[in-house]
Design a protein that fits this description.
- With 456 residues, the chain is α/β, with parallel strands linked by helices.
- It has 3 domains: 130 residues, 3-Layer(aba) Sandwich (Rossmann fold); 252 residues, pyruvate-formate lyase- activating enzyme (Alpha-Beta Horseshoe); 55 residues, OB fold (Dihydrolipoamide Acetyltransferase, E2P).
- The protein is built from 12 helices and 19 strands.
- Strand 15 and strand 16 form a beta hairpin.
């Protein structure tokens, strides 16, 4: 009972949490396997941002339960946001689950699995499901382990997520994250920088700093210095780490984009010219109803300030269509701002009710067919934007970080500084290297090119 498969739903924070759990389990002697057909233990790291995400994980757990009927020693665990949100109530739908662990207790998973394994090896009945969704002081400091490639995983790791902050105090009306992730908590700056140095020593070239509101990092723990926020101070320290060549971060909040952060894009060469800047709505009334503390005018000022520093800046965003009470005129304001910002990528969501959030109790819910139409309008604009931006890159030479084989295993993949996926032919020895790539072909989401290296 030592072969573990972890299936992750949702955001990059969840991906990072799963990686940390996998690293802790491997250090305990567990094997991390890529196929659910080969495992003795399946852990589902879940998402609660939308009801569809929860239903997908519940469906998967129900499907996997048949393994327990064939093999009573098989272990099924549910981790993360849905575990935190629903807790023991999940057992009403999923009585065969052995382990329910919330977002502040990931580091306890190895101990719980050890206990389950020891009990079964001794022939002792397991008894009740283990449910641990309690808060824990300092839990933000436990997501620090990284999975080291070994055996079949020998492709070198060239990029890594680094968790710098957990939780959120923003209380957006549509969002369940404060309930599932808790209050805002930041890790010590020196610990984060030490983690980045360790990753650089292992060959990691690109760091993505992660937090629920990453730009709020350290605001209660560190002082502003000469107008520089704690988050920008952290960027400066990571920028100074030898071996790290690129820095990204997600997910920020517009209120965190003061002048010091905009100017950082001009003076920190490792900070990639790519910004994920959630807009959510282009209507001031809807933004106020969402409890988003900025206006459409302020949002556009932020976009313009960043482009003034880096005219070649790439932007992505989050948009919710069909928020309760959103009129046709208010959606039109969103459409206008969406076009004006000229996004390269966007995550466009049709509003879905999340119980326990203020928006769930609002009247004037929008019909599904209206949400579908508004969603399609923005997706069409996004497709045209992406095609236009990619077409403009044809014939140019872009710096690409070679990450490894593509999904076919026949070619290689990497990303530009602007976060565009590229496919190309390369020698495996170039994995982890920054290379010049001449762009020869483009689809909506992918660039194809040829390396411009003598002798390669």
């Amino acid at each position: 009972m030592n072969r573990v498969h972890i299936k992750t739903y949702g955001c990059q924070m969840n991906e990072r949490d799963s990686e940390a759990v996998a690293a802790m389990l491997r250090a305990r002697g567990y094997r991390i396997v890529g196929s659910e057909d080969e495992c003795d233990v399946m852990l589902l790291n879940t998402c609660s941002v939308r009801d569809a995400a929860e239903q997908k994980a519940i469906g998967k757990a129900g499907y996997v339960s048949h393994k327990k009927r064939k093999n009573p020693d098989f272990v099924l665990g549910i981790l993360g946001c849905m575990a935190q949100n629903r807790g023991a109530a999940l057992l009403d739908q999923l009585p065969d689950v052995d382990l329910i662990v919330g977002t502040q207790k990931f580091h306890q998973v190895p101990d719980y699995l050890d206990n389950l394994r020891a009990a079964r090896e001794a022939g002792v009945p397991i008894g009740e499901t283990i449910v641990d969704i309690a808060e824990e002081a300092g839990s933000q400091n436990t997501i620090k382990d990284h999975l080291v490639a070994e055996g079949a995983d020998l492709v070198p790791q060239v990029n890594a997520f680094v968790s710098i902050q957990q939780g959120c105090n923003m209380d957006c009306a549509f969002c369940i994250v404060p309930k599932t992730r808790g209050d805002e908590r930041s890790r010590p700056m020196d610990d984060i920088v030490a983690e980045c140095r360790s990753l650089a020593a292992r060959g990691v070239k690109e760091i993505t700093l992660l937090g629920q509101i990453v730009t709020s990092y350290g605001r209660r723990d560190y002082a502003h210095t000469d107008g520089i926020s704690p988050f920008v101070q952290l960027l400066e320290k990571v920028h100074a780490v030898e071996g790290i060549e690129r820095i990204r971060f997600t997910s920020p909040h517009p209120r965190g984009f003061k002048d010091d952060l905009a100017q950082a894009y001009g003076r920190l060469s490792k900070l990639c010219e790519y910004v994920h800047l959630p807009m959510q709505s282009g209507s001031n009334r809807i933004l106020k109803a969402m409890n988003r503390p900025y206006s459409r005018e302020r949002y556009k000022e932020i976009v313009d300030s960043l482009r003034a520093v880096r005219p070649d800046m790439y932007f992505s965003t989050d948009i919710i269509v069909g928020f309760p009470g959103e009129t046709d005129e208010e959606f039109e304001q969103t459409r206008e701002l969406f076009e004006a910002c000229n996004y390269d990528m966007a995550y466009i969501f049709k509003y879905s009710i999340r119980s326990g959030t203020p928006a769930a109790d609002m009247g004037d819910q929008i019909p599904d067919e209206v949400k579908e139409h508004r969603n399609a309008v923005l997706l069409d604009i996004l497709r045209k934007n992406s095609e236009r931006r990619n077409a403009a890159l044809l014939g140019t030479v872009e710096e690409v970080l070679v990450e490894g084989p593509d999904k076919t295993g026949e070619r290689f993949t990497g990303r530009t500084r602007g976060n565009r996926v590229c496919i190309f032919d390369a020698n495996p020895r170039l994995i982890g290297q920054l290379v010049p790539l001449k762009i020869e072909r483009a689809s909506v989401s992918t660039l194809y090119g040829e390396l411009q290296l003598a002798g390669v």
